[in-house]
Design brief:
The protein is an alpha+beta fold. Helices cover about 30% and strands about 30% of the residues.
Length: about 325
């Protein structure tokens, strides 16, 4: 009898697993531009305080850019239009006044990969309370999915350049549009041309004990970046003046703890400029604790694109930098 029960359980699990796999395999591929978000919400809610709260969270300005740009490019539609192909959008926020009071995130409901964040409440105030409690979790879920989507798109055509790997023993999944523009003993710079500018990646290493005092951590990071800029990233020729990239002195960068390639790291977001020359833009730096090699491995992305939006360029650079892997 025990054997019969065990066999029944095993068969049930196999059938249940097959049904789930079958459902997953028939889902269409999701659609949508990187960092786009469909917000399914009735027009009246969208025009009132609920819509204001949605925009406050999901259209907040991205940190560390030279102009205000939203976290997501939002398209609002009422629930009756949310059907057909549009349900296959990769990132969906569904907001509804209902008899239920809930907030959760569903995965691969109509397509794959897909995140559908659902916010419901019996009143405007309940919906707003749920938004306040769950918005950051939902934003993180959407952003992680967008990073994975961007990284998967890189795989279609990866650069074959080996400069970073040969010099530092690390790899990055870099799209083939990027080309090496400079290699030194402790510095590799790759660049891609974009409309009206460039996107750039640099890599270098610092001694393990480069940052020893927490109270001076930010100023030490600025000093490090400015030193590297002075050595390796010159600006345009200006008679009688030395030009090079540095950290914009009027704005202190923002620093956050994070993890890259399974190692503790610092994430630094801020603005760069060219000393003695009117050029500037955003940068994103990761300083990774590589204890095995007694060093700090530094990888950085920065964009130069005057008077144009830079959110998606910086997001692409973030996606590239987060593919960092250390050779064993």
């Amino acid at each position: 009898m025990k054997h019969f029960k065990l066999l029944f359980i095993v068969l049930f699990l196999i059938v249940f697993s097959c049904k789930n796999e079958s459902k997953e395999s028939y889902l269409p591929n999701s659609i949508g531009a990187i960092n786009s978000l469909i917000v399914v919400i009735d027009n009246d809610l969208w025009k009132g305080k609920v819509g204001d709260k949605v925009r406050e969270h999901f259209a907040a300005s991205v940190l560390g850019l030279t102009m205000d740009e939203p976290l997501f490019s939002i398209i609002q539609i009422p629930a009756e239009i949310f059907s057909g192909t549009i349900r296959n959008t990769r990132a969906v926020l569904y907001v509804q006044k209902d008899t239920l009071n809930l907030a959760h995130i569903k995965t691969n409901m109509y397509a794959k990969p897909q995140k559908v964040a659902v916010i419901k409440g019996t009143s405007d105030d309940e919906i707003i309370e749920n938004l306040n409690q769950k918005a950051q979790e939902m934003i993180t879920s959407f952003k992680n999915q967008e990073l994975s989507e961007a990284q998967n798109r890189f795989l279609r055509s990866l650069s074959k350049e080996k400069g970073i790997k040969d010099r530092f023993g690390v790899t990055l999944n870099i799209p083939s549009l990027y080309k090496i523009v400079k290699q030194e003993d402790n510095f590799v710079w790759v660049e891609a041309q974009i409309n009206k500018g460039t996107v750039n990646l640099i890599a270098y290493e610092m001694p393990w004990n480069s940052f020893t005092v927490d109270s001076t951590f930010v100023s030490d990071i600025v000093r490090m970046r400015d030193s590297i800029g002075s050595l390796y990233v010159p600006g345009p020729d200006v008679p009688g003046k030395k030009t090079h990239m540095r950290t914009e002195p009027a704005f202190a960068p923002s620093v956050f703890p994070t993890e890259i390639a399974g190692k503790k790291a610092a994430e630094v977001r801020g603005l760069w400029d060219i000393k003695n020359y009117p050029m500037a833009g955003p940068f994103l730096t990761y300083i990774v604790n590589d204890k095995e090699n007694s060093r700090k491995m530094v990888v950085e992305g920065f964009t130069f694109a005057p008077a144009t939006e830079k959110r998606d360029h910086m997001f692409e650079l973030e996606a590239i930098l987060k593919t960092l892997k250390f050779d064993k």
